[in-house]
């Protein structure tokens, strides 16, 4: 009788176990989302300087809004990009403007992060998992499934003495 209980327990435990996802036969991103919200973490290393932030990125056709927060969730900055250009708003500081997000990043960080290309990778509009953008070597080192799509989970970019890493923890696509 004890053998039956052991076998039953093993079957029940096996039925509750999470199966490993099938191997991905097409390591490409997409199809693209028109609108997407993503939350996660950013790590930026520039020389000896290291920054760790949380982010919420909202992309809609023709606009991007990126909220940057401390690791504990305190709002630090808001980057916006639309037909009127790019803007950076920070508490108690004047708004900084530029024509593009990379130009804005250059003014603020001293490095023109390829943020517009990252928005395309983020929503699955760039299918390739690696490439070069404006002198940055970009690699999607991990992906995740979201609503019958393959989206990036980890994006790593490197240029000269700057390393940038974006990790997506949560997705939402309200209009899909």
From TrEMBL:
Q: Where is the signal peptide?
A: 1-20
| Top-level taxon of the source organism | Bacteria
Keyword Chaperone present in the record's keywords: the answer is: yes
* GO biological process terms held by the UniProt record: protein transport
What is the topology of this protein in the membrane according to its UniProt annotation?
A: Lipid-anchor
InterPro entries assigned:
LolA/LolB/LppX (IPR029046), OM_lipoprot_LolB (IPR004565)
Q: Name one GO cellular component term.
A: cell outer membrane
Indicate where this protein is primarily found: membrane
* Keywords for this protein: Cell outer membrane, Chaperone, Lipoprotein, Membrane, Palmitate, Protein transport, Signal, Transport
Q: Where in the cell is it found?
A: Cell outer membrane
Q: Which SUPFAM superfamilies match?
A: Prokaryotic lipoproteins and lipoprotein localization factors
Family recorded in the similarity comment: Belongs to the LolB family.
Could you give the subunit structure recorded for this chain?
Monomer.
Q: What is this protein called?
A: Outer-membrane lipoprotein LolB
Species the sequence originates in: Sulfuritalea hydrogenivorans sk43H
């Amino acid at each position: 009788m004890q053998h039956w209980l052991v076998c039953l327990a093993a079957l029940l435990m096996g039925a509750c176990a999470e199966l490993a996802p099938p191997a991905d036969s097409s390591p490409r991103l997409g199809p693209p989302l028109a609108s997407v919200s993503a939350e996660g973490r950013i790590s930026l290393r520039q020389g000896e300087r290291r920054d760790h932030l949380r982010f919420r990125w909202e992309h809609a056709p023709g606009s991007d809004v990126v909220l940057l927060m401390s690791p504990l969730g305190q709002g630090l900055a808001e980057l916006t990009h639309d037909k009127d250009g790019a803007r950076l708003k920070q508490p108690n500081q004047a708004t900084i403007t530029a024509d593009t997000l990379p130009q804005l990043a250059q003014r603020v960080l001293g490095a023109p992060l390829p943020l517009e290309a990252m928005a395309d990778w983020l929503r699955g509009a760039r299918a390739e998992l690696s490439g070069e953008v404006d002198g940055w070597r970009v690699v999607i080192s991990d992906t995740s499934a979201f609503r019958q799509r393959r989206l990036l989970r980890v994006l790593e970019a490197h240029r000269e003495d700057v390393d940038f890493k974006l990790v997506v923890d949560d997705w939402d696509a309200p209009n899909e």
